[in-house]
């Protein structure tokens, strides 16, 4: 067999040869190619035809019996893809593309275009109609600081920024050791150790409430060795773990219809099914009770009932009573 019998390797080698030969030396004779590649003249013709189909700008010179590139060309490595692989690629590209207009991600447009061009080689040429749609992303100002905070995390840089909670009349200065970034409910959050004397614990900050430009203030070396970001929100529905609360067993009872919804798209996992019947679904979860859990339950109204703990039952009852009071005034 020839020295270069693998088709993929031959295409790559041919592409390298033509890209290196420029100007007067651009032409490569058929004899040269046959000798370099270790293939027959017939095989070379087949390879040239295939490369043309791949978009290679090949031009044949009958007088000198050779080939040249009319302009530089970048050939992608052929990758065997199944139908399922192709569909997942299409979904991935569509998912990434929705961030194209989000502040902080503007430079990704060129990358998306390269991905589309690469994927297009394996797509059905007739599959041009848009078939994938997403909820529109809001104009998210906080994303502009993502590159800064990502760099701070990777370089273990302490940072300082002005932060303004929604109910505050003015911003306050925050100094933290950043540990992680997390996307949650169409927003971005920065998590890390707060140096505020009244806190001195790990917490999160929504980036849209960062005012002005954050700055580096030093380097930190004391990140807890056993800290794992995924563990931080393991027992919470929301994004900010209450530092003074423990894990409790939460038991919820859904009516049949919302039980089906919960099983198809649970708002928290893992959970244990305690009872499942034609009338209801009862599940148990280990959770730190936070405001987002309370809001999840309230949003379901009469379709869910808190069985335990009693403190959560009382809290939900108080919220509902306060809401009902609005309609009696």
Automatic annotation (TrEMBL):
Classification via InterPro entries: CBASS_pafABC_assoc_protein, WCX_dom, WH-like_DNA-bd_sf, WYL_dom
WCX domain location: 250-323
Cited Pfam families: WCX, WYL
Domain WYL: 150-210
Lineage: Bacteria, Pseudomonadati, Bacteroidota, Saprospiria, Saprospirales
Protein name per the record: Uncharacterized protein
PROSITE patterns per UniProt: WYL
